[in-house]
């Protein structure tokens, strides 16, 4: 009887849902995909862009109805394009050159007709006040050239952030039966199990405890 009661308590513990809302965003990583591999393993190393402010992932769906006998006969779901928009305190030149496939000559970057952005994968974390994190992985996509904005300085200092947008598609991800565009997982405070698994699924390598990062510098 005591054993059955303990089992019931354990099941209640594991079935408890988490209702903590995210309050921040952190740890935006990306890597260029190796297109010669069927699973899209990365070329080079994972890069981090620090000081992310907002990351928006849009996953549109539309219900399509078929009619007959003056009523709905069937409903099917049509999935739209996955789009991503990120705002950063600053998007370093080095990252723009990599993400957008820009030609660089003698230290000068450029935009032109021949720009060919590479396929990349991305991961970022939605943070919670209790220290937990929800990790979101974007499996395969490319970013588009951002708008160039500048504003006069006034009496009070106003920081001007930078945005970049991209579109993502589905890709084979190890362990899943169907191709995926987004993979996500949750870790409680102090835990890294799902983070580590997600990095291996999306990038094919382990989470970078120490990684090459780009820092914001004055333009």
TrEMBL record:
<dbReference type="InterPro" id="IPR006724">
    <property type="entry name" value="Phage_TTP"/>
</dbReference>
<dbReference type="InterPro" id="IPR006490">
    <property type="entry name" value="Maj_tail_phi13"/>
</dbReference>
<dbReference type="Pfam" id="PF04630">
    <property type="entry name" value="Phage_TTP_1"/>
</dbReference>
<protein>
    <submittedName>
        <fullName>Major tail protein</fullName>
    </submittedName>
</protein>
